[in-house]
Amino acid sequence: MDTFDFVEQVRDLSQVPDNDEDITTQFILTQGHLGLMERFTQPVVMLRNGTWLHSTDITTTAGVSRYRLPERSIVQGLEKIECFVSNSGTGGGMYLLNVLTSIQATDYEGLNNAGRPAAFTYQADNVVIFPTPTSNWTLRIWYYVRPSFLADWNDWVSDIQSRIISITSLGGDSYDLELEGVNQQSYTDPTPFDLQWGSGNHELVAVSAVGMATGPSNLTIQLTLDQAAIIEAAPLDDGAKDIYVTAPDVTGYIQLPEELCNALVSYVGAVVLAEKGDSEKAQVFSQKAELAIKNIVDIAMPRSKGQPPVFKTRNTYLRRRIGRWGWGGGWGNF
């Protein structure tokens, strides 16, 4: 769902005209962003299906145990930390760091373990690695990115974004992106950009990737192999890929699974109705939003836990096929 449709649906639900002096487009977009952070962060993280999940690599320094989380990660939005190890025979691999417990903290005080990272804990917006590394290790931090600010669709389309036409490797982590049309601004200095899908859940392909304009329609940007592969594999649609280069932390799309977008419309509609003094209707749509969120979480949770969903039915055809007492001679799930 793009922000134009989002604003229109909120206005229709709350029956607020376009020229309302209090409920402006910016008010609705601001409430939408606040709703994403205040109400939708928790269910998105609970689902653990990859929505808003991103990674970044850091290299430890000998004698340094504290490292800052990415500045756009949601509060305590750390999924896991992996440590890379090299092996001359197998080429190496990675292992997960444990979440530190108070007992482990005591153990690690007297344990050297060659300074190999084994566990971590939070300290404000930092992670503290135990034991303290004594050499350089590569850590991959998986975190949930904070939802981007919602921009007015017309402004976003005309001033902020460009679709990608092609991607070319320049060696290492540098890539050249050919953009659709003329880039609206000349980024002659290294500048952070977001790369975002224009369809599906409108996920970010890259978060604050550093790039610099090398021509009116070209951008040299730093990407991982996975990010470059995603862009390369994206099909062309009307001459360009459905992936946008945008200013960081701003979007013209609702970055949610489509099934949750209507819940956000109801949530913001309730805020608008409360602002207009209609607390009764506000309560109705607030409850509608909560029910929608609960239903989506209930459906998705068994799959995100790695277990197949269990469906119960009283369908008479199934009852005839398996018998009244189920497959094994009891009531079973029926």
Brief descriptors of the model:
four-stranded antiparallel sheet; disordered C terminus; 2 domains; 334 residues; alpha+beta
Describe what this molecule looks like in 3D.
The chain has eight helices and 18 strands. With 334 residues, the protein is of the alpha+beta class. It folds into two domains: 3-48 and 147-251, no CATH class; 53-145, no CATH class. The strands form five sheets. It has a six-stranded antiparallel β-barrel. Strands 1-8-3-4 form a four-stranded antiparallel β-sheet. A hairpin with a 2-residue loop joins strand 13 (204-215) and strand 14. Helix 1 crosses helix 6, helix 2 packs parallel to helix 7 (279-304) and helix 6 (258-275) packs antiparallel against helix 7 (279-304). The longest helix has 26 residues, at 279-304. It is globular and about 65 Å long. The chain starts with a helix and ends in a 12-residue tail after the last helix. Residues 304-334 have low confidence and may be disordered.
What series of H and E elements makes up the topology? Answer: HHEEEEEHEEEEHEEEEEHEEEEHHH
Biggest sheet: strands side by side, in what order? 10-11-14-13-12-17
Largest sheet: 6 strands, antiparallel, barrel
Count of the domains: 2
Average pLDDT, to the nearest integer?
81
* Unreliable stretches: 304-334
Number of helices: 8
Give the % helix.
Answer: 25-40%
Task: Tell me how many strands there are.
Answer: 18
Inertia-based shape: globular
Range of strand content: 25-35%
Distance between the termini: 39 Å
Q: Radius of gyration, Cα only, in angstroms?
A: 24 Å
